[in-house]
UniProtKB/TrEMBL annotation:
GO biological processes: vesicle-mediated transport
Coiled-coil portions: 13-57
Secretion signal, residue range per the UniProt entry: none
Membrane topology, record value: Single-pass type IV membrane protein
InterPro entries recorded: Synaptobrevin-like, Synaptobrevin/VAMP, V_SNARE_CC
Domain spans labelled V-SNARE coiled-coil homology: 8-68
Keywords for this protein: Coiled coil, Membrane, Transmembrane, Transmembrane helix
Similarity remark: Belongs to the synaptobrevin family.
One GO CC term on file: membrane
Organism the protein comes from: Astatotilapia calliptera (Eastern happy)
Name used for this protein in its record: V-SNARE coiled-coil homology domain-containing protein
Superkingdom to which the source organism belongs: Eukaryota
Transmembrane segment boundaries: 74-96
Amino acid sequence: MDSNGKSHLQKTQEEVEEVKVIMLQNMNKAEERSGKLNELEDRADLLLEESKKFEKTSTQVKTQKRWANKKMKVVLIAVAVVAGLIILSLIIVAIVQSTKGSD
């Protein structure tokens, strides 16, 4: 017997019980962490899928905008050419009329 009145065996059993409780707590925490890690992995997979969708959509939008810009340039060039031709024809008409008038 100890000075506290407990036998060595009782002390050892109490210590084993304490270790058992701590081990169960550790196992529960490890299981909890495992669940959180699985959830995190699922969320990461979803995020990866969403990023791939975003990349595909952004590429499509980029292509559409590029074509829209090219079409706009073609339209502006066509307008400039038509305007230039109109101005050139007006100048030619003015020159022809002025040479007829000086004759």
